[in-house]
From TrEMBL:
Keywords: Calcium, Disulfide bond, EGF-like domain, Membrane, Metal-binding, Signal, Transmembrane, Transmembrane helix. This is Fucolectin tachylectin-4 pentraxin-1 domain-containing protein. Residues 1-26 form the signal peptide. The chain crosses the membrane at residues 489-513. One of its GO terms (molecular function) is scavenger receptor activity. InterPro entries: FTP1 (IPR006585), Galactose-bd-like_sf (IPR008979), MEGF10/SREC1/2-like (IPR042635). Residues 188-334 form the Fucolectin tachylectin-4 pentraxin-1 domain. It comes from Elysia chlorotica (Eastern emerald elysia). It comes from the Eukaryota. SMART domains: FTP (SM00607).
């Protein structure tokens, strides 16, 4: 019995898991819904079904919606002035654009609202590269303060504004307005959808959550409306994630009893537990209406966590068929998405990404790509936008590298410098991680970055590593006959030149000696004359003619002697 009960319990758990997996992963059965538990709503053209996971509409959005999963209301506007035809501005067709004649366009919003973000579609991709060029200001958006941009694709750009004021018109101007094809102004998305709804009492099956089921057009109101049964009569909505609210819509019951909503009050609170509201509205129409649109006259600065709708104390019935709150999630700086569960991946981590798309004004962080910078680089690519290729010299069979900085995950092939492995080892190193030193025998210590073999050897050495002494053989000494002749000629020229220089020197010395002797013969002897040094016979200059002097005892003596003046101090 015990084992049988355990088996049944096990099968029940498996079955429940499979059913849960099927519901969360399969396509939603009803068109217009996607996500886990089909909790998010999309608005595709012609009521087509969107992607069950992402909400993307293959054929585009319904004309009244745009943006991610076609969830954002496209605020209605009317062109100001006498323009010939501006249908191209709102037709959603990227092939119909400004004819080039308009350099300023002003549109008046049907309902004044905070200006949170816009989407522009152009026909010139170069414009998006420098959209915020302060010098040229290609397209200016008057009314959008603190504009920041993020590209969606090559022809689409989102512009986020600092939401400081409610505006009733938007003006586009600039020299490149001629490239504009479409303009979308965000009216927010319905952030009330399938949030936590409560009411103090319930009439039959008219439960509170039916007022946030996204359905407003079923013929049987009990299937889609909330209804209280007794006093006090109120209905409350608590957001799972705080929101920035810019507009409220309350839908009335259509089959009967519309008057029950006359004079209702709506309050918005910053915190669930707050008793002081950040916004309040009391219906003053005095007549029943199919639906009520409530737009605050000024921006609600604080985020909202709770919305409260009530009737006066004398009424026990409060009947609401749908409540919509348009705005967006109040995500922390590093998060985006409806539930703020998605991580921003911006190049500048201090700069918040767009909460509606995750788009980054500073571009994607290294390692990521895509509209919301959430797609990791494919294998073999890295860097911001994943436009750089990993090195072909990463170690291993594939070029795998860190998607952020390109560092090879398995190191480098031998001969390349880590971590990027793009550059060869420097000329003095080689091998794995370039840790080996080239042989000192290599000329200039330079070797091959892979093998370590010397690029060149110094004289007297050979071999891959220049460690073999060169042995001189006849083959080493053989030279061509032309070289022999050339070298011999050089030697002869040098010898002749040296001989001529030596002979010339000897002749010059002998001539100097001879001339000096002749000059002494002509001068009168002086008492200060000293005997000349002996010049033995057979000397280098002995064959030259001698001066007419007597040779005695191997000394040269002048042939004539003249007496000195009596007074050597007197001039003759």
């Amino acid at each position: 019995m015990m084992s049988s009960g355990f088996a049944c319990l096990f099968l029940a758990v498996v079955f429940t898991t499979l059913v849960s997996w099927h519901v969360s992963s399969a396509q939603c059965q009803r068109a217009g819904w996607f996500g886990t538990g089909c909790r998010y709503q999309c608005h595709c053209a012609d009521d087509n079904q969107c992607d069950g996971t992402t909400g993307a509409c293959p054929a585009g959005c319904d004309p009244e919606w745009f943006g991610p999963a076609c969830q954002y209301v496209s605020s209605q506007f009317t062109p100001r002035g006498t323009y010939s035809d501006l249908a191209w501005l709102t037709d959603g067709d990227p092939d119909t654009c400004n004819d080039g004649n308009l350099h300023t366009i002003t549109v008046d919003l049907d309902t004044p609202q905070p200006l949170t973000w816009l989407r522009l579609v152009v026909n010139d991709s170069d414009l998006l590269n420098d959209f915020q060029d302060a010098e040229h200001q290609y397209i200016g958006i008057l009314g959008c303060t603190g504009a920041k941009t993020a590209r969606v694709d090559k022809l689409t750009i989102d512009v986020a504004c600092d939401t400081e004021h409610v505006v009733d018109h938007v003006t586009l101007t600039g020299s490149r307005l001629e490239t504009l094809c479409s303009l979308y102004i965000s009216g927010g998305r319905n952030v009330a959808l399938k949030q936590d709804a409560k009411q103090p009492s319930t009439l039959n099956v008219w439960t509170a959550e039916k007022a946030v089921d996204g359905i407003t057009n079923l013929p049987d109101p009990s299937l889609t409306c909330a209804h209280t049964l007794e006093q006090p009569s109120w209905w409350a909505l608590q957001f799972y994630t705080p929101v920035h609210a810019m507009q409220f819509k309350v839908f009335n019951r259509l089959d009967c009893c519309k008057e029950r909503l006359i004079g209702f009050r709506l309050d918005a609170f910053h915190k669930k537990s707050d008793t002081i509201n950040v916004f309040s509205h009391i219906d003053s129409t005095g007549v029943p209406m199919d639906n009520y649109t409530i737009t605050p006259s000024s921006v609600i600065k604080k985020s909202v966590e709770r919305v409260y709708i009530a009737k006066d104390r004398n009424s026990k019935f409060l009947n609401i068929c749908e409540v919509m709150v348009f705005g967006d999630s109040a995500c922390p700086r590093s998060r985006f998405g409806r539930e703020c569960t998605d991580q921003c991946n911006c190049a500048d981590q201090q700069d918040a990404c767009f909460v509606h798309t995750g788009g980054c004004p500073t571009g994607c962080a290294p390692g990521f790509m895509g509209q919301n910078c959430s797609i990791a680089c494919p294998r073999g690519m890295y860097g911001s936008g994943c436009i750089k290729a990993c090195s072909d010299h990463c170690d291993g069979s594939t070029s795998d590298c860190d998607a952020r900085d390109g560092a090879c995950l398995t190191g480098c092939e031998p001969g390349y410098i880590p971590p990027m492995c793009h550059l060869k080892c420097n000329v003095s190193t080689f091998g794995q991680r370039c840790e080996k030193i080239c042989s000192r025998n290599c000329l200039h210590t330079e070797c091959d970055h892979l093998t370590g073999k010397c690029i060149k050897c110094p004289p007297g050495f050979a071999g891959d590593f220049c460690d073999e002494a060169v042995v001189t053989t006849r083959s080493n000494q053989e030279v061509s006959s032309d070289e022999v002749i050339s070298n011999s000629a050089v030697i002869v020229i040098v010898v002749v030149f040296v001989a001529v220089c030596a002979a010339t020197t000897v002749v010059c010395v002998c001539l100097i000696v001879r001339n000096y002797g002749a000059s002494r013969q002509r001068e009168p002897p002086s008492s200060y004359d000293l005997p000349m040094a002996p010049v033995p016979n057979g000397t280098l200059c002995g064959s030259l003619p001698q001066s007419p002097a007597l040779v005695k005892d191997d000394y040269m003596v002048p042939s004539m002697m003249q007496p000195l003046p009596e007074n050597i101090y007197e001039m003759p």
